[in-house]
Amino acid sequence: MRKKFKDLLNLLKLKFRKSTYSGKVFCIGYNKTGTTSCGRAFELLGYKNVSFEGKNWRGLYKNKQYLQLLNYAAKFDSFDDLPWLKEDMIVLLDKVFPNSKFVYLERDLDSWRKSYYNWTYKITGQYPDMEKGVSNFLAHREFVMQYFKDRQNDLLIMKISEPGGFKKLAEFLGKKTDQTEMPHENKT
Questions:
Q1: Are 36 and 81 in contact (CB under 8 A)?
Q2: Top-level CATH class of 30-172?
Q3: What percent of the chain is modeled with pLDDT above 90?
Q4: What is the CB-side half-sphere exposure of residue 31 using CA atoms within 13 A?
Q5: Which of 33, 48, 138, 149 is most exposed by smallest CB count within 10 Å?
Q6: 35, 29 contact by CB (below 8 A)
């Protein structure tokens, strides 16, 4: 009973939350680069954050329900993980939410491979096609670098593990903080 009430309360809060169409923050690092940690960092900086949600990924994005997805996004301040990091979404989000900031997370390829391999097996029970996974990882990076090549003020490139990363993120977003290190969520 208590969970149903809490779920209903959250739905009502979302329904009446004001929609805004500018100044969002999007973590567009590829899967297994620290997107969940980045989302937690956004929350610590005071943003209303949305991370991976099955209804957004499977229900809206995969069914090309972009208008509903964008209307949902208008009620939040920051975003991480799927579907927000997809290349077609990056372009759409950039156009629909002007004056937004984007955070691209880098990760050493060997470290990424290990994390991706373990995560995929844990989730699906099957070994991933590593050649395809690496190809997608590198293609995503190339897309982001090309798309933002003349817009350095809109894109922060960082590693979750870099010293002083949280402070670097806060400064990029115009926030003040005494915390220096990024949170570490979703450890593989």
A1: yes
A2: alpha beta
A3: 74
A4: 16
A5: 149
A6: yes
Give the tokens for residue 91: 């372009």
Domain ranges across the chain: 30-172
* Residues 16-21: contacts with CB under 8 Å, at least 24 apart: 17/48, 17/75, 18/75, 19/71, 19/74, 19/75, 20/74, 21/74, 21/96, 21/97, 21/98
Of residues 182, 186, 188, 180, the one with CA closest to residue 159: 182
Are 78 and 27 within 8 A, CB to CB? Answer: yes
Q: How many CA atoms lie within 13 A of 130 on its CB side?
A: 13
For residue 134, which of 111, 159, 155 has the smallest C-alpha distance? 111
Instruction: Yes or no: say if 103 and 80 are a contact pair by the CB < 8 Å rule.
Output: no
pLDDT tens digit string along 19-44? 665 789 999 999 999 999 999 999 99
pLDDT at 69 over 60: yes
Q: Which long-range contacts (CB under 8 A, 24 or more apart) does 60-69 make?
A: 61/86, 61/89, 66/92
